[in-house]
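User: You have something folded?
Assistant:
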Amino acid sequence: MKQISIENRDEGEIGRGPYSAPALEKGLDILELLAQAGEPLSTRAIAEQLRRSKGEIFRMVFVLLQRGYLTREPGTDRLALSRRLFDLGIRTPRGRQLTSVVLPYMERFSESTGQIAHLVVLSRGETVVVATTTGHLDASVMVRLGYGRPALEANSGLLILAFQPEHRLRALMKDAPAEARQALDAPEIHRRLAEIRERGYEIAPSRDIIAVTDIACPVLGPAGHALGSIIVPCLQRHGSMIDEKSVLEALRDCCRDAGSQLGYE
């Protein structure tokens, strides 16, 4: 019987034929399960949830650990996703362009204001910090690269969603939990997004840290959609008041100048 390899098939045929790659599918199943679980799982738990033998899951886990896609929770046998998938994602041409274009403007902003700034994008219905600056104040709020939280529970996430046409908003949230997708239709969310869009920025208490005010502006591409947002966590201290108006003006200039250098999505 003549066998046809995928390499010899037209690109349009791939994905329509009876071909399968069981080992690859098992590996992807493991990664997707851990992403959905949101917490580390043991090999046994992974095998049970995927309805596969512990032996075949163990072999896949061993390879994924070796390649750096998984990490083991210290002192346990539980496994979690590493930052490798995130790192690969921001190395794509689109991710590299956004970071490489915006970061110099963020650094200029931090030099002039002293404030730390974080570049945030949306992925799977959650915010993800993809770049940060250090600032030069003696006390600031710094978060690690890759930090994120549900988009509807983050000031930066709401800001990005506010500057999307309906079809893009739904697409950005399609991998979010069902309750988050349903919340998009709530009148309160519609009102909040409309208010942010009308203002063009967001100034609100941090959802994470007491005594921190988030100042955030969208980074708009040529089509007017928010490709990301820059958020500045301003730490309120005794005897020192932040000039929020000046920070906002500098941040709006930063986002406008950076956005003008971005290509079409």
Q: What stands out?
A: The first strand starts at residue 41 and ends at 42. Strands lie at 41-42, 70-72, 78-81, 118-123, 126-132, 202-205, 212-220, 226-235.
